[in-house]
Amino acid sequence: MRRFRLILPLLILFSTGIGAEDFESFYQEGKLIEEVRFDPYGNPLESRFYHEGRLEEERVYSYEDYQVQISITHHLPDGTSELLGETLYLREDGSLRMMERQRGDSSLMSGWSSQAEWIGEGNSKEIYLYGTGGELLERIFYADNVETEKEVLSYNSEGLLLSSRLERSGESFTTFYNIRGLAEEVRHYRDGLLVSQSGYVYNERDQVVSEKKEGQGRLAEWTWLYDGEGTLLEEKSFQNGLLTRKVIYDGEERTEELYNKGELTLTVYYRGTEIIGEEKQQ
Questions:
Q1: How many Cβ atoms sit within 10 Å of the Cβ of residue 111?
Q2: 37, 68, 164, 260: which could form a disulfide with 88 (CB 3.0–4.6 Å)?
């Protein structure tokens, strides 16, 4: 059996010596964050991860040629546990080539190198999970070991992106894509309730020409006009069908018109960021 030296990406300030049951304890800012038991080759056999004194995860490792099998028990705050499995596929030099995660009957493959999977700086970490064809399936962000944002993507049988669901802080955004991979519809949910729904239309250059957003009894619309070379000429904003703002672009200069209940009230002329003129309507 070939043995591999695994390098664990731990944020460790110092560790104790070998402790009870030959587990080595690791601390950060005086708090126990991990216990690990190693084999004679320096590979982990078991590990326990702690957060604020609570056992959060246990891992058991077994080794085969160019593979590492990991059985994971994730302890949830409500006292229940979730069982997961991971298989690490290694290169000849022992570096990580690919990872497979099993949850029940489902299986997710993650990137072709350790850098593609786990990206971290300080207390922040990003995890990317990929399908067998290299397509991104999940993107998860952590801050201080707490999941702050998660995005799940789905594809059709031809590998084209169909939809994505982004979750953060009790809110979620579900996006549906057209055949060119452009966002065609976005639904915003808060605590499971639909807050707003947006739709987008594009020109042949894939530039958005109109956006419509409905929610909470309001209708907001935006339109954009381009010339034959794709240069923006004009944009308009509407609220509940009434024009509220119009901007006309002419090189470095632009004219901005503001409306109240559909009536023009103010015109402002710009050159770059500088206001060069202003007209108020009586």
A1: 19
A2: 68
> CA 41, 43, 46, 52 torsion: positive or negative?
positive
pLDDT in tens, 260-280: 998 999 999 999 999 999 999
- 170-182: burial string, b at 16+ Cβ within 10 Å, e else: eebbbbebbeeee
Structure tokens at 144: 């201080």
Q: Tell me if the pTM is above 0.90.
A: no
Q: Alpha-carbon Rg of the chain, whole angstroms? A: 27
pLDDT digits (tens, 9 = 90+) for 39-94: 888 889 999 999 888 999 999 999 988 889 999 998 988 889 988 888 887 777 77
Partnered with residue 268 across adjacent β-strands are: 256, 278
Closest CA relative to residue 211, chosen from 196, 225, 226, 200: 200
